[in-house]
C-alpha cells in the first residue's frame, strides 16, 4: 500500500465532498450491504481510501481533473457521518486493461528498501518440487513456528522468513490468548532433537542431518501490525516480526522465501498454489510432527468464503479464497503460514509467497474440502518494504 495512494485518496475525498454538496439526493445504496457499480454489478460501499480498485482507476489522471471526478462520481455511493465520500467497491477486483495502472500497482523492484531483501530467495531443492504430503528435509527453509507461553504444544501460529531479520505472519497471531515468547526457524520434525534423512549409495545407507533449529526470543512488541487490521473481520490480517537478533540463514536448513516484488511476479498466472504446515496427520489427528505439504490449493469464488465465514463479511482485494482439492486442509495451527507458487526468474524456478493463512474452520482432516481465507500478499508489498530496516 503506497503512501502516494493514501495522499491521492485524501485529496480526492476533499474533491468529492464538494460533489456531495451539489448532488445530495442521489439514490446510491440498493440494500443494507450492497451498492450499484457503473456496470450494474453489485459492490460494497466503503471509504475511498479503502478501495484500491477505484483509487487506481483514477491514478492515471490529475486528481482535480474532470476525468478523475467523473470516474469518482460514477462510483460514489454515499457519505459518512463526517460528509466524506464513500465509493462502491467491487467485491472482486476489476480487470482493468491498463499497463500504467498495473505497473503502479505491482512493481516495487525499484523501491528504495528492496535491497534489504535477499536476492537468493525462494530456493527450490531438486528433490523437492512439492512432492508428496510430507515436506522433504531442507525443502522449505523459510518455514517458521511461533512459540507461545503454553504448556504441552506451544506452537500455535506459523510464519515465513523473508530476510534474516524479518518474519511475515498474520496480525491475528499477536492476539492469541497466550503470550507469544519466541520463534523457531529451521524445523522439520518438532518431536526429534535433530532432523535427518537418508539415502542408499553403493549399497550403504547414508544419513544426512541438518543443523539444530534456531530458537529466538520475541514478544508482542516485536510485531509490526498493518495499521488497519481488523480483529473482528480479520481484514488486513498481516504483520511483520522484527527479530532482535538475525537468524542464521545458512542455506542448508534455513533460507528465505521470495515476495512478489516485480509486476511479472505478481501477474504470474498460477493454477494451483501450495501451503505448508504442521497441523494435521494423514489420520486427521492434531499434530505438530512433520512439516506437511498441501500442494493443490486452488482459487475459488470469494463468495464461497463469505458464505462459510459469515462473520467476516465480503472479501475485499486484500484477501483470497482458496479450496484444498486434496481434502487435507490447512489447520488452525497454521495461521500465518505461507501460500506459495513457482516463478521462473532468469531461467531458474524460485518459490514466491503469494498469500498467508488468515482464517479456516476448526474441522481438520475430515475429508471435506472447506475453503480457507488467505491474506493476499501482493497488495501489501509496498507496506512491507516501507517497514524494513537494516
TrEMBL record:
<dbReference type="InterPro" id="IPR022700">
    <property type="entry name" value="CLIP"/>
</dbReference>
<keyword id="KW-0964">Secreted</keyword>
<keyword id="KW-0325">Glycoprotein</keyword>
<dbReference type="InterPro" id="IPR001314">
    <property type="entry name" value="Peptidase_S1A"/>
</dbReference>
<dbReference type="InterPro" id="IPR009003">
    <property type="entry name" value="Peptidase_S1_PA"/>
</dbReference>
<keyword id="KW-0720">Serine protease</keyword>
<dbReference type="InterPro" id="IPR038565">
    <property type="entry name" value="CLIP_sf"/>
</dbReference>
<keyword id="KW-0645">Protease</keyword>
<dbReference type="InterPro" id="IPR001254">
    <property type="entry name" value="Trypsin_dom"/>
</dbReference>
<dbReference type="GO" id="GO:0006508">
    <property type="term" value="P:proteolysis"/>
</dbReference>
<feature type="domain" description="Peptidase S1">
    <location>
        <begin position="129"/>
        <end position="389"/>
    </location>
</feature>
<comment type="similarity">
    <text>Belongs to the peptidase S1 family. CLIP subfamily.</text>
</comment>
<dbReference type="Pfam" id="PF00089">
    <property type="entry name" value="Trypsin"/>
</dbReference>
<dbReference type="InterPro" id="IPR051333">
    <property type="entry name" value="CLIP_Serine_Protease"/>
</dbReference>
<feature type="signal peptide">
    <location>
        <begin position="1"/>
        <end position="27"/>
    </location>
</feature>
<dbReference type="InterPro" id="IPR043504">
    <property type="entry name" value="Peptidase_S1_PA_chymotrypsin"/>
</dbReference>
<dbReference type="GO" id="GO:0005576">
    <property type="term" value="C:extracellular region"/>
</dbReference>
<keyword id="KW-0378">Hydrolase</keyword>
<keyword id="KW-1015">Disulfide bond</keyword>
<dbReference type="Pfam" id="PF12032">
    <property type="entry name" value="CLIP"/>
</dbReference>
<dbReference type="GO" id="GO:0004252">
    <property type="term" value="F:serine-type endopeptidase activity"/>
</dbReference>
<protein>
    <recommendedName>
        <fullName>CLIP domain-containing serine protease</fullName>
        <ecNumber>3.4.21.-</ecNumber>
    </recommendedName>
</protein>
<keyword id="KW-0732">Signal</keyword>
Amino acid at each position: 500500500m503506497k503512501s502516494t495512494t493514501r495522499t491521492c485518496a485524501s485529496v480526492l475525498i476533499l474533491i468529492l465532498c464538494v460533489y456531495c454538496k451539489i448532488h445530495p439526493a442521489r439514490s446510491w445504496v440498493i440494500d443494507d450491504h450492497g451498492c450499484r457499480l457503473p456496470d450494474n454489478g453489485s459492490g460494497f460501499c466503503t471509504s475511498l481510501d479503502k478501495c484500491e480498485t477505484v483509487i487506481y482507476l483514477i491514478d492515471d489522471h490529475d486528481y482535480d481533473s474532470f476525468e478523475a471526478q467523473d470516474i469518482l462520481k460514477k462510483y460514489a455511493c454515499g457519505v459518512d457521518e463526517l460528509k466524506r465520500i464513500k465509493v462502491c467497491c467491487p467485491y472482486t477486483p476489476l480487470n482493468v486493461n491498463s499497463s500504467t495502472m498495473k505497473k503502479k500497482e505491482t512493481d516495487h523492484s525499484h523501491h528504495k528498501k528492496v535491497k534489504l531483501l535477499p536476492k537468493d530467495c525462494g530456493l527450490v531443492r531438486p528433490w523437492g518440487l512439492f512432492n508428496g504430503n510430507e515436506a522433504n528435509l531442507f525443502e522449505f527453509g523459510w518455514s517458521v513456528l511461533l512459540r507461545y507461553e503454553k504448556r504441552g504444544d506451544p506452537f500455535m501460529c506459523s510464519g515465513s522468513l523473508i530476510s534474516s531479520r524479518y518474519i511475515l505472519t498474520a496480525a491475528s497471531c499477536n492476539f492469541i490468548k497466550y503470550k507469544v515468547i519466541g520463534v523457531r526457524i529451521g524445523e522439520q520434525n518438532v518431536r526429534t532433537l535433530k532432523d535427518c534423512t537418508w539415502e542408499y549409495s553403493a549399497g550403504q545407507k547414508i544419513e544426512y542431518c541438518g543443523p539444530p533449529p534456531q530458537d529466538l526470543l520475541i514478544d508482542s512488541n516485536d510485531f509490526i501490525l498493518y495499521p488497519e487490521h481488523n480483529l473482528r473481520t480479520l481484514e488486513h490480517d498481516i504483520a511483520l516480526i522484527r527479530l532482535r537478533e538475525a537468524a542464521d540463514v545458512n542455506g542448508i536448513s534455513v533460507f528465505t522465501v521470495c515476495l512478489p516484488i516485480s509486476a511479472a511476479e505478481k501477474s504470474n498466472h498460477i493454477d494451483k498454489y501450495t501451503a505448508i504446515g504442521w497441523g494435521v496427520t494423514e489420520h486427521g489427528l492434531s499434530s505438530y510432527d512433520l512439516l506437511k505439504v498441501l500442494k493443490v490449493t486452488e482459487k475459488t469464488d470469494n463468495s464461497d468464503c463469505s458464505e462459510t465465514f459469515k462473520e467476516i463479511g465480503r472479501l475485499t482485494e486484500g484477501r483470497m479464497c482458496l479450496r484444498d482439492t486434496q481434502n487435507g486442509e490447512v489447520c488452525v495451527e497454521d495461521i500465518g503460514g505461507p501460500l506459495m507458487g513457482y516463478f521462473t526468474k532468469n531461467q531458474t524456478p524460485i518459490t514466491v509467497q503469494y498469500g498467508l493463512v488468515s482464517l479456516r474452520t476448526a474441522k481438520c482432516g475430515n475429508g471435506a474440502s472447506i475453503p480457507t481465507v488467505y491474506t493476499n500478499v501482493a497488495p501489501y508489498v509496498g507496506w512491507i518494504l516501507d517497514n524494513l530496516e537494516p
